[in-house]
Amino acid sequence: MSALAFTAARLGFLALLWVFVLLIVRALRQDVASAVPASRRRESGTTQAAPTGRRRGATRLVITEGPLAGSTVPLTPTSITIGRSPSCTLVLEDSYASSRHARVFPKDGAWWLEDLGSTNGTMVGGRPVRGTVELPVGEPVRIGQTTLELRP
Q1: pLDDT tens digits, residue range 46-96?
Q2: Cβ 88 vs Cβ 81: under 8 Å
Q3: Pairing relation of β-strands 123-124 and 110-115?
Q4: Which keywords does this Swiss-Prot/TrEMBL entry list (predicted)?
Q5: Which of 45, 53, 90, 98 could form a disulfide with 118 if both were Cys (CB 3.0 to 4.6 A apart)?
Q6: What are the pLDDT digits (tens) for 36-45?
């Protein structure tokens, strides 16, 4: 192998290594940004504070089926995280739920549901959720063995 080819291969490997490092840094920044509490993001100006008041009539999140059936979570201007992790707003003790499974949050006067990359998925009205969808009042949301819905 000539010296020129060997040097080109070394430089190519070095470039690929830097691309890999930059991709890791980008992924870590996204993880850290999503872990910052909503109150701190509002203080720093990275998100706008949600308008106060009712959002399309919903005031609470009610669990209709599963081990926590009958439980209610009041809706506030901050997001509600759902999953097995103790750091979640709504903790599900369900082996079919991911540690950070989904979140419900206010945006533009409506409530939205986002699947947070869960293993077993989230269903709204019997349809799988890909990314973020608007969540209508009374529409059943299925996470593992738990069903919940927005209620007035």
Answers
A1: 444 334 433 457 999 999 999 999 999 999 999 999 999 999 999 998 889
A2: yes
A3: unpaired
A4: Phosphoprotein
A5: 98
A6: 554 444 444 4
User: At 139, phi and psi to the nearest 5?
Assistant: -80, 125
Token pair of 127, please? 């349809």
Cα–chain center distance at 40: 17
On whether the 60-151 domain is CATH 2.60.200.20, my answer is yes
- Number of helices (H), then strands (E), in the chain: 2, 11
Locate 11 and state its tokens.
Answer: 């430089």
Task: Tell me which residue has tokens 């369900």.
Answer: 94
Tell me if 141 sits within 8 A of 58, measured CB to CB: no
Comparing CA positions, the residue from 148, 142, 146, 147 lying closest to residue 60 is: 148
Structure tokens at 95: 């082996």
Query: Residue 102 burial by CB count (10 A; 0-12/13-18/19+): exposed, middle or buried?
Result: buried
What pairs with residue 112 in β-bridges? 105, 134
b/e 17-34 (16+ beta carbons within 10 angstroms → b): eeeeeeeeeeeeeeeeee
Q: Which two tokens stand for residue 129?
A: 């959720």
